[in-house]
Write a structure and sequence with these properties.
By secondary structure, the protein is an alpha+beta fold. The protein has three helices and eight strands. It has a single domain, classed as Hypothetical protein (Archaeosine Trna-guanine Transglycosylase, Chain: A, domain 4, Roll), CATH 2.30.130. It starts with 8 loop residues before the first strand and ends with a strand. The model has no long low-confidence stretch (mean pLDDT 91).
Amino acid sequence: MAEGTNERIALMAIHPVYASAILDGVKKVEFRKRRPAEDIERVLIYATSPVQCIIGHFSIDEVVVGSPHSIWRRFGSQGAISKSEFFRYYGDAPQAIAIRVAETCRYELPIQLSQLDPEPSIPQSFSYLGQMALA
């Protein structure tokens, strides 16, 4: 996964329907309220309940910041989410983050968090992992 590099990786919690859409190439943009750190190039996809494991990863093409309305106009058709769900998610937030997905990889066998060393906690939105190895 990290293949012995020193790169930091984001571990992102994503609802299973959206996680699958990313890995299937249907969802090309992940919407967030917080921007990932500048050095993050790869995101591990932690599919939330009921799956509760890492099912793949994607590399980041670019991160775009703007108002929810401008982000919707630019990326709404690529997000695999309805307009009403998008605006419900952002509520009164002044800014939206669009993370454009580049390459994806679906793992043949899902990875439990307990298989990572050190074992991370389940991220609320996303967290950062340093160099790690499978336990």
